[in-house]
Amino acid sequence: MDHQIRRSRGGHARTREGQHPLHARVPGLMQLLGARVVWRDRGLLVLDKPAGLPVLADRSGTPCLWDALKRGLEAERLRPLAVHRIDKGTSGLLLVALDAEVQRSLGAAFESGGVGKWYAAIGHGVLPDGTLEIDLPLAPGRKSRWRVAGPRNAIVADRVHGRPGYRLAATITDARAKAARTRVRTVRRRGEDSLFCIRLLSGRTHQIRVHLAWIGSPLRGDHLYGRAGDHAQAAPRLALHCHRLQLPELADGVTRPRTFRAPLPADFRALLREGSSDLE
After folding, report:
1. 267 assigned to active site
2. 116/94 Cα distance (integer angstroms)
3. Span 5-114: which CATH code?
4. What is the pTM (predicted TM-score) of this model?
């Protein structure tokens, strides 16, 4: 294991302060933005990003994570290399490569489905009990939105890949359609709100948000895919958090944890407590 880091209990990792310029620069910059360094070795940086912080610069002018990373790494003559992204409104785990070999290895793993991705989400709507398989291809929609690549009334409840779930009972004619599979399990309910544990089996833009909205349980705080004017679905933040990533062994040969976790942040937990604590 890299001498500058150590693994802590529960699959998390933490840095030893003062042994590397990164420990003076990146954690300080991340704290200013509300982010947390979960793990660092010579080729990989794992961050816990807060909701509302964009990974890249956007039209809002909000300080972005990538600019802070570039400033924090410049003293080491390193630069962050993109592997994947999570939405501005989503909190949780984000992987950043620090060398090209790790970037290529992780990119291939994401492309082949070799990275396990689990999310916590709160939807406004009740789904059937048990684990559901959602197999609904996605296509570009209007105004930067995505949509299911077929009519809403063609979505049917059925056995999907051996599980109960949802599929399209229609021929897909949109050449832009991309396969998208999501596995959803209801953990708890309170009224019309449901706490979901979600595993992404593919990685399309806004996949969880579109899938849940189109089967009747849009995420709390999702103004893009939610129901306009529905005050019960509204929330101060998007109720989506990447809480676990499981990696394959990477090509650089560095010994590192294979699983990283990020606990539910306070603003997400606050949504669980609204009016009742029976979702916690």
Report:
1. no
2. 13
3. 3.30.2350.10
4. 0.87
